[in-house]
Write a structure and sequence with these properties.
Elements: E1 3-9, E2 18-24, H1 33-46, E3 69-70, E4 73-74, E5 95-99, E6 108-110, E7 113-114, H2 117-126, H3 146-156, H4 163-167, H5 174-185, H6 194-207, H7 218-222, H8 230-246
Parallel strand pairs: 1-5
Antiparallel strand pairs: 1-2, 3-4, 3-5, 6-7
């Protein structure tokens, strides 16, 4: 495959950026999108140019660090992580636009790399449970209804990639925050911090300058792990419950 890749280049957070065209040849349809970027970077290094900076780690769709906007869609044309997107999703001769996540709360560091530490601050503000010391309790000592366990697990699969924020026209992180709140608030271990957790996480989310949620659903359509839109409704319910209980 021979492609033209238009990539956002920006040398630092305080410099201006621009889209730059790069021809890429010899791309196998079985390559992942990140492998294609590797090939491009190898060519740039040989030519004495600065390689494109982009985040990645596991390359197995687990860590969530690889996210970029491809042709206007978070992670690209398929509902998966960028590292699991293969070049067979494109056609020979295509022009592919590659940009970083666009959100006020995710400032650009360099090229396709953004600062997603706002997510870390949200988790740190309430992503913990009370763990009593002593011997481990029996596995069946604290029963969890299967429906709650299944829903908690579904929300726990969130990898914090930020696609929901990048896809949202408002730059909202409600899907991410709701996944964390729903996951922990459903479990018995999460009950002691239940009200404080949701209030602290929402406050931290607002402090990070994420936008408001208007239920457009783009976050769910772009989420590689399929976090349901109902999680946002649950977050709103938990927030109202915590607010009323605090009065």
């Amino acid at each position: 495959m021979k492609l033209t890749v238009r990539i956002w280049r920006q040398s630092g957070p305080d410099t201006e950026g621009a889209m730059v065209d790069y021809p890429v040849d010899g791309i196998s349809p079985d390559m992942s999108f990140l492998e294609m970027l590797d090939v491009l970077n190898e060519d740039l290094i040989v030519e004495g140019e600065e390689p494109v900076a982009f985040d990645h780690d596991c390359r197995e769709g687990i860590c969530g660090s690889c996210g970029v906007v491809i042709n206007g869609r978070a992670h690209g044309p398929e509902q998966t992580t960028t590292c699991q997107l293969h070049m067979r999703a494109f056609r020979d001769g295509d022009v592919i636009d590659v940009e970083p996540w666009r959100a006020k709360a995710f400032p650009i560091i360099k090229d396709l790399v953004v600062d997603r530490s706002a997510f870390d601050r949200i988790v740190a503000s309430g992503g913990y449970v009370t763990a009593p010391t002593g011997s481990a309790p029996d596995a069946h000592a604290t029963p969890v209804p299967k429906a709650d366990a299944d829903l908690a697990f579904d929300n726990a699969t969130c990898i914090g990639c930020g696609a929901c924020v990048a896809a949202c026209p408002n730059g909202s992180s409600m899907l991410f925050t709701s996944a964390k709140v729903t996951h922990l608030n459903l479990l018995p271990q999460g009950q002691p911090e239940r009200e404080r957790r949701v209030l602290d996480m929402v406050a931290t989310m607002d402090d990070a300058d994420f936008g408001g949620c208007t239920n457009t659903g783009e976050c769910v359509a772009s989420c590689p792990k399929g976090i349901p839109l109902s999680s946002i409704a649950n977050l709103n319910k938990e927030f109202l419950r915590a607010t009323r209980k605090g009065k």
